[in-house]
Design brief:
67 residues; mainly alpha; elongated
């Protein structure tokens, strides 16, 4: 994202699409990693009384951000 923001007008003409495609690919990878983490954390909530609220809130935030 930062690379896209720092492109000059000339660079944008040739580099914007490839950099944006790379950004979308990386974003997809992050989402692919996030979903299993949320599922595993959701299962842990049931067994950990002290962290139940915090883990539940984090799972909700990740799920909301990923959708």
């Amino acid at each position: 994202m930062q690379e896209l923001e720092h492109l000059s007008a000339t660079q944008r003409h040739t580099q914007q699409v490839p950099k944006y495609c790379a950004l979308l690919r990386i974003t997809g990878q992050v989402l692919d990693y996030a979903h299993p983490v949320v599922q595993k954390a959701g299962k842990m909530v049931k067994g950990v009384a002290a962290g139940r609220v915090a883990i539940g809130q984090l799972c909700e935030q990740i799920t909301t951000s990923c959708d």
